[in-house]
């Protein structure tokens, strides 16, 4: 089940008057990763002052008891519901013109599966479900199904890049294997992908002893990705490292921030730095440094500490881990590491995300100077796409708590 801290995301607040006036009307827009929908909460500045972030805890009180059709909730200054609305016009969300599989040439060598054949078992996190399906052999397969239900341009690009990268990676004992492209059933549009499900849990679990061989595996994997494939993961952290219960090896996943050469490259998210922070957190249990925005971090603060106090069971002395790390970091930092990365012999590349054909449908965008309607093509809101009769894939679903209650009654 999705962690409570990860379930909601505030997408902003609109004020209809001075934000200093407690009686000014306010509208808050909150995305619910459990139900995969946006909910508008209406109230006043008294309840929703700027930068107070009050909308999420207020919505969390009653969201699981709302009808799935409700799009907006009005609350009084005590946070109690006074009115609800099922009008879809209450919510402005970006339309996603999911790409028809026929237009995604780079994916045509992938196996596919229809969305209707996936059975949800659990909700692992934002945009990731645990699912099962029957393979062609009739044997059930457990998979992690990853999808992007948000129409923001950066998320569409990240989803496309991760899918193309994962399907192109060579098999590796320390990377979660790619499985299939997921297509919706009506028009065979690409809505996500599956990877093999690894049930062993991540290294974020502080009760799991940490092995020296896992550090060796991680550094070897980073060298392979960076210096052979020209890929930087850019989000190496304990939460993105699983332990395979069958092989007892670590497996890296979540490549949605990855760079290929200069494409998507972020100098503040270097993988060597990521390994340093990861090992420090695994040994000490201190994640305070990784909570700092990555562009504001100074890795030398951690790297040059005289001692890393051990707060986790280890199979070797802390000094063994640190000495190995120091030797590896020195090797990576010697010479021109960036040029070695940029000149990687087996760089993986893929095409830019295509423009969805849906966006060629003109929409009204104001008027010209002579009063004529200005027609444009491109991104639009879901309400606009609906009025134009465009195909919309609906992700919304009941809250997991309601499904569990129904299962228990059965």
TrEMBL record:
Catalytic activity: L-seryl-[protein] + ATP = O-phospho-L-seryl-[protein] + ADP + H(+); L-threonyl-[protein] + ATP = O-phospho-L-threonyl-[protein] + ADP + H(+)
Cited SUPFAM superfamilies: Protein kinase-like (PK-like)
InterPro entries reported in the protein's UniProt record: Kinase-like_dom_sf (IPR011009), Prot_kinase_dom (IPR000719), Tyr_kinase_AS (IPR008266)
Record domain Protein kinase: where: 118-410
EC assignment: 2.7.11.1
Superkingdom of the source species: Eukaryota
Record Gene3D superfamilies: Transferase(Phosphotransferase) domain 1 (1.10.510.10)
One of the record's GO molecular function terms: protein serine/threonine kinase activity
Function field: Component of the EKC/KEOPS complex that is required for the formation of a threonylcarbamoyl group on adenosine at position 37 (t(6)A37) in tRNAs that read codons beginning with adenine. The complex is probably involved in the transfer of the threonylcarbamoyl moiety of threonylcarbamoyl-AMP (TC-AMP) to the N6 group of A37. BUD32 has ATPase activity in the context of the EKC/KEOPS complex and likely plays a supporting role to the catalytic subunit KAE1. The EKC/KEOPS complex also promotes both telomere uncapping and telomere elongation.
Assembly and interaction partners: Component of the EKC/KEOPS complex composed of at least BUD32, CGI121, GON7, KAE1 and PCC1; the whole complex dimerizes.
Name recorded for this polypeptide: EKC/KEOPS complex subunit BUD32
Source species: Periconia macrospinosa
């Amino acid at each position: 089940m999705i962690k409570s801290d990860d379930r909601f995301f505030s997408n902003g607040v609109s004020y209809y008057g001075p934000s200093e006036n407690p009686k000014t009307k306010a509208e808050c827009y909150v995305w619910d990763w459990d139900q995969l929908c946006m909910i508008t909460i209406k109230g006043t500045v008294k309840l929703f002052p700027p930068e107070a972030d009050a909308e999420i805890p207020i919505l969390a009180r009653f969201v699981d008891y709302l009808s799935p059709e409700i799009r907006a909730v009005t609350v009084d200054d005590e946070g109690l519901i006074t009115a609800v609305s099922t009008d879809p016009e209450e919510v402005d969300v970006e339309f996603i013109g999911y790409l028809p599989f026929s237009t995604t040439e780079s994916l045509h060598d992938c196996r596919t599966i229809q969305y209707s054949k996936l059975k949800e078992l659990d909700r692992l996190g934002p945009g990731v479900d645990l699912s099962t399906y029957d393979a062609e052999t009739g044997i059930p397969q457990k998979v992690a199904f990853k999808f992007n239900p948000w129409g923001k341009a950066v998320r569409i690009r990240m989803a496309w890049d991760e899918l193309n990268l994962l399907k192109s990676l060579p098999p590796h004992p320390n990377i979660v294997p790619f499985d299939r492209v997921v297509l919706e059933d009506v028009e065979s549009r690409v809505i996500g992908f599956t990877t093999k499900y690894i049930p062993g849990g991540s290294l974020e679990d502080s009760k799991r002893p940490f092995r020296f061989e896992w550090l060796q595996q991680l550094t070897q994997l980073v060298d392979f990705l960076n210096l052979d494939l020209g890929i930087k993961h850019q989000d190496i952290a304990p939460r993105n490292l699983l332990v395979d219960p069958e092989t007892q090896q670590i497996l890296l996943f979540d490549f949605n921030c990855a760079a290929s050469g200069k494409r998507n490259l972020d100098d503040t998210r270097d993988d060597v730095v990521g390994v340093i922070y990861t090992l420090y957190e695994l040994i000490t249990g201190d994640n305070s440094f990784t909570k700092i925005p990555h562009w504001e971090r100074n890795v030398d603060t951690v790297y040059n500490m005289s001692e890393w106090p051990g707060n986790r069971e280890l199979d070797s002395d802390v000094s063994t881990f640190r000495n190995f790390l120091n030797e590896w970091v020195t090797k990576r930092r010697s010479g021109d590491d960036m040029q070695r990365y940029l000149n990687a012999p087996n760089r993986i590349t893929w095409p830019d995300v295509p423009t969805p054909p849906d966006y060629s449908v003109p929409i009204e965008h104001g008027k010209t100077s002579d009063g004529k309607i200005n027609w444009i093509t491109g991104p639009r809101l879901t309400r606009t796409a609906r009025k134009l009769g465009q195909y919309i894939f609906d992700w919304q679903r009941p809250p997991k708590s309601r499904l569990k209650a129904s299962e228990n009654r059965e």
